[in-house]
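Person: I have long wanted to understand how a fold can be written as tokens. Underneath my words sits a plain record pairing an amino acid chain with its backbone structure tokens. Those tokens are not coordinates but codes from a learned vocabulary of shapes. I should like you to check that the lines agree and flag anything odd. The protein I mean follows directly.
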Amino acid sequence: MKLKQIKQATDAAKHQNHFVSLPPAFLKLDIPAAPSPSELDEDRKQITSARIQHFASPLHPNLLDQCLQLFEENMGNMYQSSSWGLDLEEKRKELTHDDARFLLVLSDNDDADDLPTGTESSSQVLGFAHFRYEEDDEDDPKVPVSYLYELQIQSTHQKAGLGKHLMNVVELLALKSHMHKVMLTVFKINTKAMGFYLNKMKYEIDECSPSNFEGEENENFDYEILSKSLVGAK
């Protein structure tokens, strides 16, 4: 695609909200929590009612702080041991970027059907996806993509299909926005996430990932870039 076409596609995606066209039932969730040790032998599960909502930057400070805290809880140690290091202020800037888009899984602990950006809320963030519509490569763009920056789920609600459900919504919105791919970055040592994307979500190592290039400098990269093509998808 020509650069002009790519920019037109990403600009259009940024100004559209296809989320409102999704069936409400698809966005309502009953999430089983991971059992505590005392509940392992009991025939019961704690169920949390939740909903997925879409937000464009900026997030309300209460929701932003919860997302940042969840990121630190899930990824802090991994970032500290990586070549990137852990910089929470830089992560906050990333989450407040003008182009940031979010899918938040919010507990249904209030009576509101909608939670407009900028409104105070006591809702708890159980998980979130942060993504943006942009070019696949800053230096040599070829196609418009939806780039997933974060997918984080509270530890007590993992292994309940929530991550897969959020990814399905991310991919559906990308498809409706005429993006050619969904792309993301994963640490190589994060074998749990790598298996989730490669095996469960059917992503592949993208052609631009460092492991596809020869040279010692590329062998030392501690991450892979994964992608799923949406071209031809219905």
